[in-house]
Amino acid sequence: MVKISVCLIIKNERAHLSRWLIGVREIADEIIVVDTGSTDGGDIWLKSQADVELLYYPWNDDFSAARNFARDKAKGDWIVFLDADEYLSKDMAKRMKKNILAIDDDKKQQAFMCQIVNIDPTMDNRIINTAYIVRGFRNLPSIRYRGRVHEQLYDGNSTLQYIVGFSDVQILHTGYSNEKMTEKNRRNLKLIQEAIVNEGKKPQHYYFSLAEIYYGEGQWQKAILFAEEFIKSGLVAVGDEQRIYHLRYRSLQLARATSRRLLEAVESSIAKFPHNHFWQDEKQNLLATIPASSQHITACLIMKNEADNLPTWYKYLVDWVDEFVIIDTGSTDASKELAYLYTSNVYDYKWNDDFSAAKNFALQFAHGDWIVFLDADEYFPPNSSKCLINYLDKAEEQEIEGLVSKLINIDKDNGNSYQNSFYQMRIFRNYLHIHYEHPVHEMLKTASGGNLKMMVLPDDVYIYHTGYTPSVLKGKDKIKRNLDILLSDIAKNGENDDYLFYLLDSYYALGDYKKAIFYGKKALQKGVKLLGADNKLHLRLLQSMILNGSSEKEIFQQFDIAKENIAIRGDMLILEAEYCEKKKYYAKELKLLERAINYLEHDKNPKIQFSAWENPKLFVYQKLVKLYSCAGDYRKALTMYLKLLQDNKFDDKVLKEFYYLLKKKSISQQYQILSALYRKPDEKEFLYKQLTSYRAYTLLLQYGKKQVDGILFYLWEQGKYKEAFYLSKKNISEDYKAILQLLLKSTQISPTMQGILLQLPLTLRQNALLFWRRKYLGDKNE
Description:
The protein is an alpha/beta fold. It is 51% helix and 16% strand.
């Protein structure tokens, strides 16, 4: 005769016990209840139930320990564990018993599962979801529970292998109602965290539970993270294998992940469950929202604590990149949670002070034809990325291996202002023979150690880099870290000529100018060449010498060496001119700047080089304007102002300075020069407004009646009645002036004012009301 023991663990479950016993009594030959510290009288009530064996167990934050205590007391052939908030109807209980008896003879069957229907009693028993969960097992000494929370059954060291499903048995569960979820989640999270600490090993078997907890708490990123980790672990949620995939997908939807990211999750679900129609349907829906791409591109990233930068990095890649590979080297912020929103290709890498090793690790996961390898604080602006796609097709035709583009350092603390620029290779072919070398300031090389076949992209493709923003560099930890890696590698492998420039640059940034000068001169002696930054070597050496207080003779000699040895001379001339300005050698400064502007204006083949100035020509124009003005050479000063304004027409400061110099010419000459410069409608509107603010009324009259009317309105709006009367050529009566002044000071038109206005001619009255409506009602359409 097969006997069945039903077990229960309780703490303050009095409200559920009566209903729980109704179904249990239909199947149980033995009822064992273990109380872990009730204070609601539930244990006292159970003592009055003759068929219940009540036991006490001191609670120690371990559900498995409490369950195993109960199962060790059970004498039945089969043990059924039901929670107090799980209910079996009499009919379902009879079905369960019938099924147990049917499988008893099959000795290989270790356990059975039933369908759990989660309902919310606070919302008219609305069904939340369903799942198949193990609720009974054969009473064998080797079968025991493990896990302090969300415990699972094991047979020795293995999960149960032979489990039969009772598809006709449903158990109602009320424990996931909204009002109880927060308390349960927090309790379970606390227990899991304690278990992880105590166990001291990778807690893979808790990932499913953590995903559920964070999903219940609405923390979608963390739910995605742990769902991904559970799937990667290869573990199985017995009886509910698909639930973790659905949980991941729903979390991605709630976190507003992109269509590409959702498709990636769907395809991995299809690979696991190929016959599930839900995933197939979702794939078709998502494919309809994703545009096809002619080039397959993989974006790679290595990161540590980049939660602040990741959204921008991803934002400017997602529309044209097909695959993401993210390598985390030990983040302690929300970086990984964010990364899992973008891709499931998130991998851990133990940091070993070697950027090349970490980047090469990332390359093995990339499947694209091309790889874009940006740092987290780098991104392509939208217009730049659109141009890049076009150049990829050309590179494809020419069998190019790497694309070199301008990288612009910007200061995000100061309105993304320009700091400097140089050229870098951030896009390259996904070929096995291409890899990174050097532990820091890594370079792309072929398997033979040679350089890649490159194409330099025009300046319409550029990358913004925010990593040298002062607040980011505060404390100079980034620079010191890179320097330490360099010195460590030198100690192990000897000094590499490629490192000399980076030693100069690092010591310059750290303010150790003597060492910077030493390595700068050594780099020049060794003939070090840097792609897109040869002039930076000279600039940094000279800047170090100036800041270190080297003699004028040494500094000017070094300037001569620099100008002789590098192809581009504009930056050198500008830096020397600035040094002369500092020394008050203004005549020499002027000559250097004139040479620089001549070079910059006539250089037909600009080189790919480092630049400390966003627009060197603009910078020189500004310097020359001041020097010519101070020398009283107004003709040359006006010429420089014209050049300045050609590219900066909306710079009110420059326009104002230009206008006051221009006043030395006749009104007709002023009109002729400005009309040639400001031609477009938006340019003219800006000019009229600025000239009005300069009170250039005689000049404004040259532009015609339409402009005068606009100026009149501006003057009335500003309360400058005297100027407005002058501009109207005094063709209105004194009475009208008085009425207009009175009207424009009134926020409402009183009956008295209406009577006065009616005495005016129609045209004058209409104009007066027009000015008033514009001033107080903001009516600009009249």
